[in-house]
Amino acid sequence: MNKLGIYIHWPYCISKCPYCDFNSHKIKDYDQNEWLIAYKNQIKYFKEYLTFHNFENIKLTSIFFGGGTPSLMHPKLVEQILSFINKLFEFEKNIEITLESNPTNLEFNKISDFKLAGVNRISLGVQGLNDTDLKYLGRLHDTSETFKILDLMQKKIDNISVDLIYALSCQKLETWNNELEAFLKKFSIKHLSAYQLVIEKGTKFYDLFKKGELKTVSDSLYEQFYFSTKNILKENEFDQYEISNFSKPNFFSKHNTIYWKSDNWVGIGPGAISRIWNNKKERIEFQNFKKPETWLKNSLSKNIIFKKTLKINPDAAEKEILMMGLRLNEGVDLKKLQHVTFLYNDEIIELQKQDIINVKKNNLRINENYFNVHDYVVRKIIDNHVSS
Ligand SMILES: C[S@@+](CC[C@H](N)C(=O)[O-])C[C@H]1O[C@@H](n2cnc3c(N)ncnc32)[C@H](O)[C@@H]1O
Ligand code: SF4
Fold first, then answer.
1. Under CATH, which number does the domain 2-258 receive?
2. Closest CA relative to residue 347, chosen from 320, 373, 382
3. What pLDDT shows up at residue 348?
4. Residue in 9, 10, 12, 13 to alter for ligand 2 test, most ligand atoms within 8 A of Cβ
């Protein structure tokens, strides 16, 4: 059996947040029918590609509507996309179908229709736990609306994941700790992604930072934020199964785990990437055009044009298996690395002595207490001079 995930990108939002470098744009008028045709063409293209390359008994384990803000999509469009996928692919019994949503009334009014369409998991962009933080992040919702909507949504849908951004220069560590604890007591969240604010190139925050008009927290405060967040989540019975992702037992994100394990997925929509291991064990990548209008134009006819398709160099593909896999608490299965030529064994032994990493049988993992130095570990053990 071949397991597969499908990612569907919706590129529009009500407004562009100042920290965000995702492929997202202020919403404008769009022709729903054209978008449906383009999405369907791409889904069909990949079904034919997989059949042509002898992928047999494919079972879909997850579908993820990401963005942008896919909760702005018309539920009918989501329903039509899902029923088309269902016609072409077999769904695994417990398939996870996630839709990213903003925590506002507008989305709550659509939740029953999304559920009827097949969505069974919501990833809710709560982002901040007080109004000062939300304002700092340029979000349009406030906490009272967010908490009301979260409460109502939990009554409709069991599997809700919450996204939070922390370590903001306007935040006090103690206030954040208290707010996070109170939040976890108030709601029975199943999954939480806690991201430290990153100043990404090309964003409004980046420009302000360069001009000295936006402060970031010091490295040591960053670390304190990280460890207290991790500890509070642990005390509230969340497993830290990935650097920034915490879940109650069995509520880990099936879809994102595909990325961390470098498994097969198909990405549909503007800027979406697909990565597939073909039957020669080569990693094939498809890149979609990023600009929504360009993507739409090139996907409207059955003769789809991608921005680029390529065979990833075997070393680069294996480096990715290692880098992504080390983000997971369970670590990487070293049997997946077949041609490895880029590992520094002396560094691995040294990091093992320092208890930063563990190597057991065919598994390599970063000790949970050192997740915050993932980048350092990767830099130490990978020889980046080897061609990639
Ligand atoms: C595609 S966005 C989520 C979509 C949804 N529109 C929203 O904003 O809630 C995925 C998540 O990445 C996180 N994120 C985006 N930019 C970030 C940044 N610069 N630093 C930290 N986290 C960021 C946010 O928590 C966000 O929810
Ligand atoms: S953070 Fe979410 S809502 Fe804000 S611009 Fe990015 S994708 Fe859109």
1. 3.20.20.70
2. 382
3. 86
4. 13
